[in-house]
Write a structure and sequence with these properties.
mainly beta, globular, about 15% helix, 8-stranded antiparallel sheet
């Protein structure tokens, strides 16, 4: 199945959220109680550590490619929590290239 990974600048919306939030770069921090994360999301006054796993193929809707995803809210000395959600791929050119390459490979 075709899946396009989340990138910095993409937007996520967890199930139950009202708004999409931008994926910002991780600070690279990790230690024995915190495994690190791929991205940070700014929620009010907090900078939340998240990992995003694409679970569905990208669909073109309202001018963007949108995929279903699983969002991991990375725990700090506690278990991580998970939610389903949506991922908006901001760079549609990257997604279209990946789709084209996928179909080329399938048809060869």
């Amino acid at each position: 199945m075709l899946r396009v990974n989340a990138k910095e600048g993409d937007l996520i919306k967890a199930d139950g959220w009202t708004f999409y939030e931008k994926l910002n770069p991780s600070d690279g921090f990790s230690d024995s109680g915190f495994k690190g994360c791929d991205f940070r999301v700014r929620l009010q006054d907090y900078n939340i550590a998240v990992n995003v796993i694409t679970t569905g193929k990208p669909i073109f809707k309202n001018g963007h490619y949108i995929s279903r995803c699983k969002i991991e809210f990375v725990g700090d000395c506690e278990p991580s929590e998970f939610s389903g959600g949506y991922l908006i791929h901001e760079n549609t050119g990257d997604v279209e290239t990946k789709i084209w390459e996928y179909h080329e490979k399938e048809n060869s």
